[in-house]
Design brief:
By secondary structure, this protein is of the alpha+beta class. About 30% of the residues lie in helices and about 25% in strands.
């Protein structure tokens, strides 16, 4: 098999830029649905300037504004919004000349901005991509009720941004940054990934102790599935060196806000393989699509031991099950796309173990697949 379509763990700034680009609104010109928000924000607070800004590539771009130039971009280092987007809470500066972070910036020293209040804007996966903010040429008081109103208006802006997400564009951008294929001592690792939807979770990487981590699953979150899947992959990658029994529980605790906001459910199998001994430990969260094909041809479907992510209390312990691969045995992890095409797990595992991608493809309907199909096969030599 050839390795296709793995996910990369993006740092927050790179991820923000990727998601902003995936929204596809930069440079699109004025849009009434955004302009209406900035106009109503100006009316609500009686300020001369309102902005809906996006932060990307170390610049801040004005997507919509009341009182300023539409589509202008300035270095992030010169903007309040580049700081606001780093935290989940609104930022209020009653008098900018008294704030050492901003007193000498061009916005204050050259343009005379004396007041700023901004609320971060997040996409459904929790990535903060910009702000809705108000500014004035004089200091202002901005109480709790004002902050709450600004947050309500920001939620409106988030919904409008969410409407423009193109699943295919999001998937292409986020999954375009991929890790290199990896070699596993004494084993052959082969992966097939077909991605018409972008909802599959797939990751493989080597931990600091030399063990191999394999993760395959699927996200169910409607139009936000691709973004949720990317979030899960990033969180999995960040826990490569954590003990298996703790990694999935911590993963679930981290992702709880994302899964809740998106109404998402994620199933996955997360395995850790010791290449020297062939020992396999795995945690299954409602997935149930893993098997070991023994060298003699017998197939052992690995049982699922828990509910999917998003349906249990965050941080709840997950059971670890163990297997051992002997010479010639093949560990197969699959997503649910092939099963949705009517292929039994045992049949899929045998095909992956014996004929690689050609064998798996032969089981699927002809033409472009309707669903994501990910199959990972690890053979012990």
């Amino acid at each position: 098999m050839t390795q296709l379509d793995p996910a990369a763990q993006l740092d927050p700034a790179a991820r923000r830029t990727a998601v902003v680009e995936a929204l596809g609104v930069l440079g699109s010109g004025p849009e009434e649905r955004f302009d209406r928000i900035t106009r109503m924000t100006q009316e609500a607070f009686g300020v001369p300037l309102t902005f809906l800004n996006l932060v990307h590539h170390e610049v801040v771009t004005t997507q919509s504004t009341f009182g300023w130039q539409q589509g202008s971009s300035v270095p992030a280092s010169e903007q309040f919004c580049a700081t606001t987007v780093l935290t989940p809470d609104p930022m209020v500066i009653p008098d900018t000349t008294l704030d050492p972070r901003f007193a000498l910036t061009p916005a204050v020293a050259e343009h005379g901005i004396r007041f700023y209040a901004g609320a971060p804007l997040s996409t459904v996966d929790g990535t903060r991509v910009g702000t809705l903010c108000v500014m004035d040429a004089r200091p202002r008081d901005f109480g709790p009720e004002d902050v709450a109103l600004l947050q309500d208006l920001a939620r409106w802006a988030e919904r409008e941004l969410g409407h423009v997400v193109d699943r295919r564009r999001v998937r292409r951008v986020l999954e375009g940054l991929v890790p290199e294929p990896i070699a596993v001592a004494g084993h052959d690792l082969a992966i097939l990934a077909l991605r018409p939807e972008g909802r599959d979770v797939a990751d493989w990487r080597t931990a600091g102790d030399g063990s191999l981590h394999l993760t395959v699953g699927s996200a169910s979150a409607g139009g936000a599935s691709a973004i949720v899947a990317a979030s899960v992959r990033g969180a999995v990658a960040a826990r490569t060196d954590e003990p298996l029994d703790a990694a999935v529980g911590a993963l679930e605790a981290q992702l709880a806000p994302v899964l809740s906001a998106a109404g998402a459910v994620v199933t996955l199998t997360h395995a850790r393989v010791d290449p020297g001994s062939g020992r396999v430990g795995y945690v299954d969260a409602g997935h149930g699509l893993a098997a070991v094909v023994r060298s003699g041809g017998d197939v052992e479907v690995l049982p699922s031991g828990g509910l999917p992510l998003g349906l249990t209390a965050p941080g709840a312990p997950r059971a670890v099950t163990e297997q051992t691969l002997a010479t010639g045995d093949v560990l197969v992890l699959a997503s649910d796309g092939a099963v949705r095409a009517g292929v039994a797990v045992e049949t899929l595992a045998r095909a992956a173990a014996s004929d690689g991608p050609d064998g798996v493809r032969a089981l699927l309907p002809t033409g472009e697949p309707a669903h994501d199909v990910t199959v990972v096969a690890l053979t012990r030599r």
